[in-house]
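User: Hi! I have a protein structure encoded as tokens and I'd like to know what sequence might fold into it. I'm fairly new to this, so please keep things simple.
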């Protein structure tokens, strides 16, 4: 299975974001990718909440989401919008992954479980919970033969989620992200490889990169990792671009037979 990871520098407007991302999606499809994934916040990035909230739309009304549905249908590919920032049915906001099939239909959604609420050593403060309502369920979905575990960015730091997804049959963990530059430099690759090794899964992590209109900086370096922890491909920069890699989906079962950690775990008490 050939997959394409899209690295973006999303603007602060959904229509501009579509114009930015669509050529990259078309490039991935032209290079043979049948499954294409975009980063977290693919439709809009705006850290000023006074500007962000009025701009957010429902999933059905968001022009970026609708544009990606049309692109999936036209190109005959699966598209995972790593996340779209949208209004929920209850008028709260969600950081939502959206899986689209080759006919343009939405087949699965996942709302980010873990909110990035931190005070970084650089002095930067993030309070994602002040903007978005967290999800309350893990989501396993299929994209053709690929058995996906849908996650988003900060979820990466909670390995129990990936174990649960693997036990539910997921063999390809998607981790679209908008990683900060300090944490990206320190932890990005090692955590992606750790989640792959722990679960015997592929990891696909399309990323935002560079310095954005709203002033934030993101790490880039989109990466694909195999079930043995090997890096299958990685962009070495933070510029918009496309990473295309081949996945031998049988490798997940092979890795799990070699290191049966999912099967060997035992319940315990304490400490």
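Assistant: Happy to help. Inverse folding works backwards from shape to sequence: for each of the 271 positions I chose a residue that suits the local structure. Here it is:
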């Amino acid at each position: 299975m050939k997959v394409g990871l899209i690295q973006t520098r999303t603007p602060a407007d959904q229509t501009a974001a579509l114009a930015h991302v669509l050529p990259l999606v078309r490039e991935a499809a032209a290079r043979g990718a049948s499954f294409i994934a975009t980063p977290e916040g693919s439709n809009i990035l705006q850290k000023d909440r006074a500007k962000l909230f009025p701009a957010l739309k429902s999933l059905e009304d968001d022009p970026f989401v609708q544009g990606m549905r049309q692109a999936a249908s036209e190109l005959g590919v699966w598209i995972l919008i790593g996340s779209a920032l949208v209004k929920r049915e209850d008028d709260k906001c969600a950081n939502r992954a959206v899986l689209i099939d080759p006919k343009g239909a939405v087949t699965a959604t996942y709302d980010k479980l873990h909110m990035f609420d931190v005070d970084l050593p650089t002095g930067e403060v993030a309070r994602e919970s002040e903007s978005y309502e967290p999800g309350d369920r893990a989501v396993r979905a299929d994209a053709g033969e690929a058995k996906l575990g849908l996650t988003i960015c900060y979820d990466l730091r909670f390995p129990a989620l990936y174990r649960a997804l693997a036990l539910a049959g997921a063999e390809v963990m998607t981790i679209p992200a908008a990683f900060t530059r300090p944490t990206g430099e320190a932890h990005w690759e090692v955590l992606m490889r750790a989640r792959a090794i722990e679960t015997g899964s592929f990891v696909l992590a399309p990323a935002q990169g560079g310095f954005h209109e709203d002033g934030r900086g993101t790490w880039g370096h989109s990466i694909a990792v195999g079930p043995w922890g090997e890096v299958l491909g990685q962009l070495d920069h933070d510029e918009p671009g496309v990473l295309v890699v081949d996945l031998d989906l049988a490798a997940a079962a092979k890795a799990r037979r070699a290191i049966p950690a999912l099967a060997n775990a035992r319940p315990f008490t304490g400490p």
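A useful reference point when you look it over: The radius of gyration is 17 Å. Feel free to ask if any position seems puzzling.
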